[in-house]
Every structure is written in structure tokens, then in C-alpha cells.
Amino acid sequence: MMKPFRQPVQAMTLLLILLLAALVITSGCTSPTPPATTAPDTPVISGSSPAAAATAAPSSGGSSGQATDVRTLNALLPAAPVGWGITQQPTGSTRLDENNQPWTASSATYSPTANKDASATITFQDTAGHNVGFRKIWSTFTPSVNSDGYFRSATLHGSPAWETHSISGKSFKTWVLVNDRFMVQVSIENGTDADYNTFLSAINFAGIAALK
Length: 212
Prior knowledge:
Layout: H1 3-29, E1 49-50, H2 70-76, E2 84-96, E3 102-112, E4 119-126, H3 133-138, E5 144-146, E6 149-156, E7 159-166, E8 171-178, E9 182-189, H4 193-202, H5 205-209
């Protein structure tokens, strides 16, 4: 009774063996997945809450429209905190993306009166929903930790952010994405946690979020 089924069973077994062999050969020829790369300036700041990397990821695009006038961005850059002075007054420019769509950016540089080696730079960018400026490199950010510091996602003033800190370089840098459109970067060189938090507190994030 079983003889009529012996040949199909053997054929099926042979077929399964051939399929398994093919899978093994294919997997052996596949290139290994490269390790995740860290973001530029990769190596938690006190007062910030860690968040999953997915939380800090922007959506497919913010509210695309007319970019904020440079003068408006300049006016939102904070005055120098106590103990600091402005070494570069707010300066902005209008730029064009690859499709000739305008976006704007403004920045100012500060230095403390007591530490001539330290400096701080604040940059605002209105990407107008386009994949430009800091927003363009946002998707490449990958969390990492080592003996010299970290690169991590966070939530700052209700917005997704990425922070990096180098202990040896005494540097701090953060990128904050406001309303999936405005990029805020704070960069501190030869500074302290207090310097970093001082400038974060000086920024009018509510004013930026209110821009249309």
C-alpha cells in the first residue's frame, strides 16, 4: 500500500535538500550588513530626558511653504547671557535647494568674558519642509556611547532632539527639530554643562514654534 507513495516522498525530500542548499549558498554570498555610522561631530546632558531614536525621527515632511524671512530668524536669536558677549551679530541668508526652493538660516556667535577659549554658536534654519541643511543629515544620526562621551536622542522643550558631548574636547552640540520644520542647533566649544544649559534656556522655542 505504501509503495506508490515512496517515489513522490523521495522526490519531495530531494527537493527540500536542494532548496536548503540553495539558501545556504545564497546567504554565504550576501554581503554583511555594515555597522551603523555615527553622526557628524559624534563624540546626557543634565535636565534632558532620553528618548528612543524613532521618537526623534522626522516625518516625511513638514509644512512646506514660504520660508521665514531672515530678519525674523535674526530677531529670535537670543541676546548674550550674563557673562557672555556676542562676537558675531545675528547673520542670515536665503538659500536654494536642488529644486530651487528657498530656505533660510541665521546664526550668532558668543564668547564668555571670563574664558576666552570658550565659544557658543546658535543656528536657526527654516527648511520650509524641504530636505536641506541640518534636516538632511538628521536621518543619519545614530546613538553611541564611549569613554569620551555620547551621541543620543532626547526631547528638549517638547521637541525631538539629538545631543552629543565630548569630554576631552569640552564640547556640546544639539540639534532640535521644531514642528517638523525648524532646525535649532546649539554648539558649545571648551564649555561646561552650565554653559550648554544656559543657552538652551535662552532660546525662545515657543516663538520658533509659532512661526508660520
